[in-house]
Write a structure and sequence with these properties.
heterodimer, A: alpha/beta, 2-enoyl-CoA Hydratase, Chain A, domain 1, eight-stranded mixed beta sheet, 8 strands, about 45% helix, globular, B: alpha/beta, 2 domains, about 40% helix, about 15% strand, disordered N terminus, binds zinc ion
Chain lengths: ~270, ~290
């Protein structure tokens, strides 16, 4: 599967029958309990947050959820978060810090929701606060890009000690459609834009943005999810164990430097 | 009136005076000959020297014209106190993206800047501050690696020297030609600000027109005190994108500084002419509190 074009991977990542966060959670975490609301405004269904057990260890799970059918898609805005989604994530992250449990995030969004109410309630502020909070949260954070990581809306939940990407996931500064529309004033050239954007797991691994690529089975992630699940579990087990052995300031410095080093030359 | 001028010139000048004194709204002069600027908001013609004297604010309607980074420094900080650092840093080696290098060269020529932000230290009423000023003329003030790194370094400098930090934002968002490297600057600058914050540094963020996208969703919104210039456009998503998503027209004041203040995201809207006094007052009020 390594010879696909960026556009082919985008098509796979966006397909309706691809595994979604809600499918993945039961594979990775036992006794998952979902918690609701940001305690400020409402409950954003595009961010599923809660508590589960990873191989016997309590973890906080923060997942961007696109929904598995049309009804779910609509209830969670196809995974595009409102400010209350980011604020729910922050509330649960602080709770994780209080009880000293690691945080696992699952990224799957085309971007933060571009809407009137989202702006009124401070989409920019919510994302900015999220970036700042995760930079220094005092527990290990692991981020996993399941399918699509778009713009600041994805980055807000990617400030992690380790970032994984599934083999056919993509991550970019904006959608190829948006990119083409800005660059050539022509959205239909998205396919062309995709090849320029360096948005595949392999591109981002080469740029040291992500730490691990999770291989997908030849017959497809949804046909054989266990092929990938086993690798994800191995990765989380190894990384959590290493991160928990670190002194707190060393663990925080590792996360800080991961981002500090990206483009640090002048 | 100078009678040696040809008739059409005298006519133009007469029109101009009439306009300046409010007798006539429209004049036909070419701006290059007469050095006239037209207020884009209320169409008043303003003579360039007068406009400069009033800090590029229209006296009729209060429209704040865009300022270059150096004009802002002159307008608000002690004369000759600014010491620029990393002035030569530029993005030339960064991207193989088609046409990016040509674009950079073009903007450098047009603006006399090497990048979309100017950073350094300055004094205001003798108080030393660390300063970053974005300039929207340079590629819409977009944030690439150099902009993010310069801002991160000025935050780190403020932290080391215990200076208050002042950042003027003006940006269309992340610089897409640099891809992921541009996007992660949001995380990098926010992380540096969190450390500065934990060390009790004072950060005043001043949002100018326009502050959108990745800059609004990172350091712009993280000030201890967030100030905006009147009518500045401030938001995350672009108006056109939202209108397309919702299939509806947005109100005219949507994402204006006044709108953000009403929604609770801006502490104060400060007229450009009052900004220096405001900053001095805020710095004074903090100087007794930050004793270690
Ligand atoms: Zn005016």
């Amino acid at each position: 599967m390594k010879n696909l074009s960026a556009w082919e991977r985008i098509t796979i990542a966006r397909s309706q029958n691809r595994l979604k966060a809600l499918d993945l959670i039961p594979y990775l975490f036992d006794h998952f309990v979902e918690f609701h609301g940001d305690r400020l405004y409402g409950d954003d269904r595009a961010l599923v947050g809660g508590l589960g057990s990873f191989e016997g260890q309590a973890v906080t799970v923060l997942a961007q959820s696109k929904g598995r059918n049309l009804e779910e898609n609509l209830s969670c805005n196809f995974g595009m978060l409102h400010p209350e989604g980011y604020r729910k994530a922050m509330r649960l992250a602080k709770q994780a810090e209080k009880f000293n449990r690691p945080i696992i995030t699952i990224i799957d969004t085309a971007g933060a929701y571009p809407g009137k109410e989202a702006e009124e309630r401070g989409q920019a502020e919510a994302i900015a606060q999220c970036l700042r909070l995760f930079a220094q949260i005092k527990v290990p954070v692991i981020a996993m890009v399941l399918s699509e990581g778009g713009s600041g809306g994805a980055l807000a939940l990617s400030v992690a000690n380790k970032i994984y990407m599934l083999e056919n996931a993509v991550y970019s500064i904006l959608s190829p459609e948006g990119f083409a529309s800005i660059l050539w004033k022509d959205e239909t050239r998205a396919k062309e834009a995709a090849e320029l954007m360096e948005c595949t797991a392999f591109d981002l691994h080469a740029k040291a943005f992500i730490d691990r690529i999770i291989e997908e089975a030849d017959q497809g992630l949804e046909a054989n999810p266990l092929h990938s699940i086993v690798q994800i579990k191995d990765a989380i087990r190894q990384d959590l164990s290493a991160l928990k052995k670190m002194k707190l300031n060393v663990m925080l410095e590792q996360r800080y430097q991961k981002f500090r080093k990206m483009g640090s030359q002048l | 009136m100078n009678v040696n001028l040809p008739f059409h010139k005298r006519k133009e000048r007469l029109n101009l005076f009439q306009t300046l004194f409010g007798k006539k709204k429209n004049i036909k002069v070419s701006s290059s000959e007469m050095n006239i600027e037209m207020c884009p908001h209320c169409s008043t013609a303003i003579e360039s020297q007068a406009l400069k004297a009033q800090q590029y604010v229209c006296a009729q309607c209060n429209h704040h014209f865009p300022l270059s980074a150096y004009e802002r420094i002159d307008a608000h900080f002690d004369a000759d106190s600014f010491i620029e650092i990393y002035a030569k840093a530029n993005s030339n080696q960064l991207s193989s993206f088609p046409d990016y290098l040509n674009k950079l060269t073009k903007y450098k020529k047009q603006t006399d800047l090497n990048e979309a932000v100017v950073v350094g230290t300055a004094r205001i009423a003798n108080q030393k501050v660390a300063l970053a000023i974005m300039d929207s003329r340079f590629m819409m003030g977009s944030m690439g690696q150099i902009v993010g790194e310069k801002i991160t370094r000025i935050i780190e400098l403020a932290d080391r020297r215990k200076y208050p930090l002042i950042i003027f934002t003006a940006s269309g968002g992340a610089r897409m030609q640099e891809g992921i490297l541009s996007l992660v600057q949001m995380a990098k600058t926010s992380a540096a600000l969190e450390r500065f914050h934990q060390n009790k540094g004072l950060y005043i963020s001043i949002l100018t027109h326009p502050t959108t996208g990745g800059v609004s969703a990172s350091f712009a919104m993280l000030g201890d005190i967030i100030v905006a210039e009147p009518k500045a456009l401030i938001g995350f998503a672009g108006r056109r994108v939202i209108e397309k998503t919702l299939q509806e027209q947005l109100p005219e004041d949507f994402q204006s500084a006044e709108f953000l203040k009403a929604k609770g995201f801006v502490d104060k809207i400060v007229h450009r002419g009052s900004l220096r006094t405001f900053l001095i007052q805020i710095l004074k009020l903090h100087s007794t509190e930050v004793k270690v």
